[in-house]
């Protein structure tokens, strides 16, 4: 095991997914015998996750997306009305990966992994770029651009749905880190910053950890669920590096 996202220790009851990163490619077929959600008493929470052994892996079989059953997360659906959400505000839970999880090499995990977290009320707020704060770096430096977000954000969205472009529209290359439990986007450029304007392009499919997008809530009526937005649509924030 290398990492689990979200990294926060307190999560909303309408959390949509975990991401589990393994140190080597894993065998897909048996993973759901090893990944479980436990309540505070140590009992398994039944039916919490979508157990698709093929479609929820990264191409290299090192990242598993643990998707909560959307039918239970989203209000108004039969599964939600019948079973309720797997997570309940005010309770604590543990995501556990048991030693039975096997790598493609045939080796099993040497020890179990557990992430214990508390749960708060559901997150029904749409991400809003107007609430983001940009801390511009110094011109002529390779200082890190720091963007403080308006809440915990899906870490894959942060990796793939935000880009920095220069005044001519060219992609700025660099290295990305995330901070403060995925509330900060930290970008260090390969080349020094110029003293001209830059643009932060944010794809409108960017999601927070509850699946809410810039275009609307995950928990909205199916007839207008907001997920038909073109993937190329972007919103833009601008900044200019500080003079030395």
From TrEMBL:
Q: Which domain of life is it from?
A: Bacteria
Name by which UniProt lists this protein: SbsA Ig-like domain-containing protein
Q: Which organism is it from?
A: Shimia marina
